[in-house]
Design a protein that fits this description.
alpha+beta; HU Protein, Chain A; Alpha-Beta Plaits; 9 helices; 66% helix
Length: 390
């Protein structure tokens, strides 16, 4: 029954809140938001689990329909919520006839899918099923036309092949006639064999020259390298002694530097200790003298600051408030404020303006931060809100 009451209220209202569960909302951008039937609004209806405060709209409607008390109406709403949660805990959707169904998405949030949205999802599948039949019909029509076209193509191909055969026959006949008329040319006189021997001698001389150059280069480079290696092998002891002397000299210089650094550190520490002792003595002497003066000055400052505070009262700093709702009844505003605080919002209630009590999600001194929070709430969470500079 409560599901039918929700549908009846959505026909004339764009927001129906189920206390402590969520709210059914019609999108602000909907063209049919001013319609008075639910069928026109169904495409733009969505469920928000964030609005849970009791605006008493559903309770009053149940009281009128069934003529019961407010407590009994609240109990019926609780029973409805428990039924929905049981079905969702068992991983089953809770369906409402001619309206939609509750489901849980991948993130574990409660969502409501209307019948209109389900039809939009199913319609593309039906279109895909119809396309293969259309393709078959087009293929049949194409096959009916193909025999005539194939016959024409075969005739053209036969003509081309006949022309090619005639060309080949003519080319063969012309080649045979040319072979009969052909006469071989006279052979050239044989050249003397002296040229071959001359070329052989020149190539042999070139090879000798290249070999001689390579031998010279290898001797010139290899001999001095071999001498250096032999010299190093003979005088290994002397070379090691030179390297060891250099290492000892380096080690001695490093030790000397370390000793110097340690001595300088000790001197600085002693100087710092002496300075601290002198400063402590001076501070104790000066502190005793100035303590009386400081007390007198502090008394004067406190009296002067108290006077200034009484004279100048700092005005309140203006803020950018992201308003969640505005109520004529202050009690409704207080309830809404408590509900937002339970949900984790930094909610505030503004002073009375034109007989209305506004409640904000959050407030910021910086305009950029306020705009960023406003976009997050309205676009990602799809909540209704506006900004007030007050």
């Amino acid at each position: 029954m409560i599901a039918t009451y929700i549908q009846e209220l959505l026909a004339t209202n764009n927001r129906v809140i189920v206390p402590n569960f969520g709210a059914f909302l019609v999108r602000a951008t909907s063209k049919n938001k001013d319609a008075k039937t639910l069928d026109k609004k169904l495409k733009d209806v969505y469920f928000s689990p964030f609005l849970k405060f009791n605006d008493e709209l559903l309770e009053k409607h149940i009281i009128k329909k069934e003529d019961i008390t407010k407590e009994q109406a609240a109990e019926k709403i609780k029973e409805f919520i428990e039924l929905v949660k049981k079905e969702l805990d068992n991983e089953k959707p809770f369906e409402i006839k001619d309206f939609g169904k509750f489901i849980i998405d991948k993130q574990g949030k409660v969502q409501f899918v209307t019948i209109a949205k389900e039809k939009e999802v199913e319609s593309p599948k039906e279109e895909k099923k119809t396309t293969p039949a259309a393709e078959k019909e087009t293929s049949k029509t194409a096959t009916k036309k193909t025999p005539v076209a194939k016959a024409k193509k075969n005739e053209e191909e036969d003509k081309k092949e006949a022309e090619k055969k005639e060309k080949i026959k003519k080319e063969d006949a012309s080649k045979e006639s040319k072979l009969k008329e052909f006469t071989p040319e006279k052979e050239e006189p044989a050249k003397p064999q002296t040229t071959k021997t001359e070329t052989k001698t020149t190539s042999y001389k070139k090879e000798k020259k290249s070999l001689n150059k390579s031998v010279v280069w290898t001797v010139a480079i290899g001999v001095p390298i071999a001498i250096l290696i032999i010299f190093a092998l003979i005088n290994i002891d002397k070379i090691e002694a030179i390297f060891s002397k250099d290492k000892d000299a380096k080690a001695q210089t490093e030790l000397a530097q370390q000793n110097k650094t340690t001595s300088s550190k000790k001197q600085t520490v002693k100087q710092a200790d002496n300075q601290q002792k002198t400063t402590d003595k001076s501070k104790t002497e000066a502190g005793e003298k100035t303590s009386d003066k400081v007390k007198a000055e502090t008394d004067k400052k406190t009296t002067s600051s108290a006077k200034q505070e009484t004279k100048t009262a700092t005005p309140k700093q203006k803020k950018y408030y992201i308003i969640a709702g505005s109520f004529k009844n202050e009690k409704y505003a207080d309830r809404f404020l408590e509900d937002l605080k339970r949900q984790g919002y930094n909610a505030e209630k503004l002073g009375e303006r034109n007989g209305m009590h506004a409640v904000s999600y959050n407030s910021f001194a910086d305009k950029r931060k306020a705009l960023a929070e406003y976009r997050f709430l309205t676009q990602e969470k799809e909540l209704k809100a506006w900004i007030l500079y007050y």
